[in-house]
Design a protein that fits this description.
The chain has 470 residues and is α/β, with parallel strands linked by helices. 39% of the residues lie in helices and 22% in strands. Strands 10, 14, 15, 16, 17, 20, 21, 22 and 23 form a 9-stranded mixed sheet that branches. Strands 1-2-5-4-3-6 form a 6-stranded antiparallel β-barrel. A two-stranded antiparallel ribbon has the order 7-8. α5 packs across α6. The radius of gyration is 28 Å and the shape is elongated. The chain starts with 6 loop residues before the first helix and ends with a helix.
Length: 470
Amino acid sequence: MLGTDTAPNRWQRLFTRQQEFLGAQRTALKCGKLIRVNGMMLEVAGLQAPLGAIVDIDKVEGEVVGFNQDRLYVMPIEDTVGLGQGARVKLREAALLPPTLNQAGHTGRRATDLMRHLPLGLGLLGRVVDARGLPLDGKGALAQVERQPIHRRTINAMQRQPVREPLDTGVRAINSLLSVGLGQRLGLFAGPGVGKSVLMGMMARYTSADVTVVGLVGERGREVKEFIEDILGESGLARSVVVAAPADSSPILRLQGASYATAIAEYYRDQGLNVLLLMDSLTRYAMAAREIALAVGEAPATKGYPASVFARLPQLVERTGNGINGVGSITAIYTVLAEGDDQNDPIADAARSFLDGHFVLSRTLADSGHYPAIDVEQSISRVMSAVTTAREQLLARKFRELWSSYQNSRDLIMVGAYVPGSDLRTDQAIQLYPQMQQFLQQSVSEPASWQRSQASLEELVGPLLESEVR
């Protein structure tokens, strides 16, 4: 015989060579090179990857945040000192996940497999981790956790249970005058140095929620340990998870810290628990998003914030709230920094539009030693009528009327120009003002339960309501 090179063998060799060629092509698509550094942005050629994919540039980790034709824009997560032109860029498959099967039964990779996967699980309780899920508390490796994607789809609005039950925050002024409901999303508006961290710590320690998740995003590094040891305490940390992404972290890590804290809260909500999510701060999250958007080339808009920043904010907030068909809840409180105590800051304005209320901390009250410095006139809870009784609403309304009457006549009262008997409500306010001040103030070590808060309010203004009825 002249040979054994039959037609089936030739087709088999051709098919094998084609497979080898395609395999080489797939390998090539997972490697590229660094061709340009522009500020914080790295430009990569020769690599194809979806948005959010994780890449390694030599030993520097980065995330794909944009692309332009055949160029990828990568934001580094670590210090870029030492990177050189032409550095090798390799696509990382997150968490070394096993290949997934498609409908035809072939193995492959989903785009989400190339994105960030971080530890989630019951083992996070009582731990302090960074934005990458690495322990910061020196208590060893995490246990009882598994790596999962931190970006999830929001719940269908029609599957959510409406806010109907109150949440005990442990703060008297909030429980009685600005009642919070399970699954509510609120903003804590404050300038620097007026006690927002202390108020958050009080709520974390004294809340009736099953689990507290604290996200410290973009704040000073020294505040992390101070918040945990001096404000949260051992008892508060025992049922809390703290995610820290301080100000010296890259903008990607600051965004990731907020998403990771939200993902942890979602995990516990899916277990049927009521979660209190405290995020400090939404403004720093927006600033990190602004840094990335401007570096990619997006045009600035209001106060330097590109339009995409205002789209990111509700996407983050809408992940919280009540679970599907009332199973579990996330009550979220986001601090919003009012730069120069300006309540018309663009981030503050945007936050008001999609949050279910806001607490405003007053510098005037803080400077006078009034803590927590909650300005009850400017603050509001939009779900209070759904989580309180008619009597509790009447009591809160009466207190606010008296407080507002005193504040409106304060200048006259202080200079002695007010004439008693000119206005009955103002006369009542002057008489009760010392007790109202004492009611609104509360020390860090003094918890005030929901029942005690309502009973104190009833004792203070209840007799006035009864006299008006008679």
